[in-house]
Amino acid sequence: MKTKKYFFTVLGFFAGIVFGVSIIGLYSFSNGPASEASGSGVVAVSADIAKSYCRNYLADATPMTQVIKGFTIDKVQLDAMNLIAKENPQLAGFRIYIGKDNTTKKIAIVVGVDNLGVDAVKNTIYTTDSQKLSPCPPICDVSSPILLDK
């Protein structure tokens, strides 16, 4: 009688461990798209939403008549790139589009790029809040030794 009591106690203990590990495994190793970075300002969007954000920006964008010398990439955009690379390590690179959301706030749209230079819109596309997002010019470090002729 005592042996059966211990047997069921041990069996219950091991069954609980197997059940717990199974639940943790289901949450840890799901094969869904890469999730957004918690609290980082990186948000996954569809290709259609990204397209509407680009159109919002282009509707009142000032035409560029100067040669672009550089571009600032914030850490938030880098976080989005890392999420995309984690989801699809075969991508060749990334592209950042400038957009405006429906509240006319300037955002960056980060998308992966394949070996042919085509946007990988079937992968996750992310937007990031980026008020400093801009090419150089107009947002430049005019004292940078990289740009100075001296």
Task: Describe, in plain words, how this protein is organized in 3D.
With 150 residues, the chain is of the alpha+beta class. The protein folds into two domains: 31 residues; 102 residues, no CATH class. 35% of the residues lie in helices and 19% in strands. The protein has three helices and six strands. The protein has a four-stranded antiparallel sheet, sandwiched between helices. A two-stranded antiparallel ribbon has the order 2-6. Strand 3 and strand 4 form a beta hairpin.
How would you briefly describe this protein structure?
By secondary structure, the protein is α+β, with helices and mostly antiparallel strands.
Global shape:
globular
Structural class: alpha+beta
Main β-sheet description: 4 strands, antiparallel
Average pLDDT confidence is 74
Identify low-pLDDT runs.
18-38
Total number of beta strands: 6
Strand percentage lies at: 15-25%
Along the chain, the helix and strand elements come as HEHEHEEEE
Task: Please tell me how large the radius of gyration is.
Answer: 24 Å
The figure for the number of domains is: 2
Query: How far apart are the first and last residues' alpha carbons, in Å?
Result: 92 Å
Helix content estimate: 25-40%
The strand order across the widest sheet is 1-5-4-3
Helical segment tally? 3
